[in-house]
Specification:
Layout: H1 6-9, H2 12-18, H3 22-30, H4 34-40, H5 44-49, H6 61-68, H7 72-83, H8 85-98, E1 101-106, H9 112-118, E2 123-129, H10 133-145, E3 152-155, E4 176-181, H11 191-201, E5 202-210, H12 229-242, E6 243-246, E7 255-259
Parallel strand pairs: 1-2, 1-4, 2-3, 4-5
Antiparallel strand pairs: 5-7, 6-7
Helix pairs in contact: 2-8, 3-4, 11-12
Length: 260
């Protein structure tokens, strides 16, 4: 595939049309035909959930997402993005409203928000962080296909991110002007600690775009979510003590915050 123009090909309308060419990218990554991919997508979520409870141990959640889920997470996330395109489009509009400078996409999955951010003229560079090596490889390949490889770097952990990954436009340690963390916090055994880490890495005037769903479902349909009441209360106390919410007009679960 030839690189395409960022200005005309990676925006909300393009996402609604085909998820930034998601099906073709995923078929290439999984070495299967588009027909085979269409057959696998509807059962992606069920296949991932079938790993629970035997493979998922709450005390070792990181290794589960890094080593166990494999390419199943790509299929599950792709199915979700394609079936919930209208909702995700609003999160992209929200990101377009706030994203600027140096952007961190933490737990970025299949790269929808990282790619969209990298295409914005007000963004200098995007640091994409995800534990799953298949996700990282997929997003790197997508960025290359879409002509964004120079504006997006891929990392396993926050500690791997450095100023040198992007074209440094200012001196000093790496701080982010925008933090994007969507559909991730409920998967972490200590989401409060993650909030504090974000807080310490945010530049003055930075914005964090966050959502969460600390609920395993009425019938256990979200087995990988943490929902311990003490964990949830600690999370909200941390959020309310360290961040100020910023109003936005989109009717979605994602919220915008600045450091208090």
């Amino acid at each position: 595939m030839q690189p395409v123009s960022r200005a005309t090909s990676i925006d909300v309308a393009a996402f609604l049309a085909d998820g930034f060419d998601l099906r073709r990218h995923l078929a290439r990554q999984l070495n299967c035909s588009l027909e085979e991919l269409e057959a696998r997508l509807p059962v992606g979520k069920d296949d991932l959930a079938a790993l629970h409870p035997g493979a998922f141990q709450p005390e070792d959640a990181a290794s589960f997402y890094e080593d166990t889920v494999g390419t199943g997470h790509l299929l599950e996330l792709a199915a979700w993005h394609l079936s919930s395109a209208d909702y995700i489009a609003d999160t992209l509009r929200l990101q377009q409203q706030f994203a600027r400078g140096r952007v961190l996409d933490f737990g970025g999955g299949i790269g929808t928000h990282a790619l969209a951010a990298a295409a914005l003229p007000q963004v200098d560079h995007v640091w994409f962080v995800d534990l799953n090596p298949h996700n990282r490889a997929f997003v790197a390949a997508r960025a290359a296909s879409l002509g964004l490889a120079d504006r997006l770097s891929v990392h396993r952990a926050l500690s791997d991110c450095t100023v040198q990954d992007g074209a440094p436009s200012r001196s000093g340690p790496l701080q982010f002007d925008t933090v994007v963390c969507l559909d991730v916090l409920e998967h972490l055994p200590d989401p409060s600690a993650q909030l504090l880490e974000f807080h310490g890495l945010m530049a003055p005037g930075a914005t964090a775009l966050l959502n969460w769903y600390f609920f395993k479902g009425h019938e256990g349909e979200y087995p990988f979510h943490f929902d311990d009441p003490e964990l949830v209360e600690r999370f909200f106390r941390t959020l309310q003590s360290r961040f100020i919410e910023v109003f936005h007009p989109w009717l979605i679960t994602t919220r915008a915050y600045r450091p208090a």
